[in-house]
Amino acid sequence: MDDYPLLNLFWTMLWFFLWIMWLFLLFRVIMDIFRSDDLGGWGKAGWLVLTLVVPFLGVLVYVIARGKSMGTRDVRQAQERDAAFKAYVRDAAGTPDAHGSQKGSHVEDLSKLADLKDKGAITEEEYQRAKTKLLV
Q1: Which class for 29: exposed (0-12), middle (13-18), buried (19 or more C-beta within 10 A)?
Q2: Cα separation, 6 vs 127, whole angstroms
Q3: Would you give the DSSP letter of residue 99?
Q4: The whole model's pTM is what?
């Protein structure tokens, strides 16, 4: 350990950290190339070849040229995921959606139908038709 000073250890850690960050950025750019809707097949192929053949220059040019749209795509994708998650929770919980319609579990509707049948408000035949309609 005497032949490797502490300062060299810090420099090695710094370079290792920068190398890992570089790999993250490279893979992030490659992922963004593939998920970009505004690029055609040839555009994606060109950017991919540029980033793989001349990685430092290719990534630098990509981030300069398309960095803002890269951030916009991130925000849009996060909003889409959030909306999908909220819709899933709304459906699973059976709460009304933005239009006020009730989606989700039919347990409450079936219990209301059973109450109406028990009170004599609907006949057995009407109950069976409504139950079939709910369950289909």
Answers
A1: buried
A2: 82
A3: T
A4: 0.57
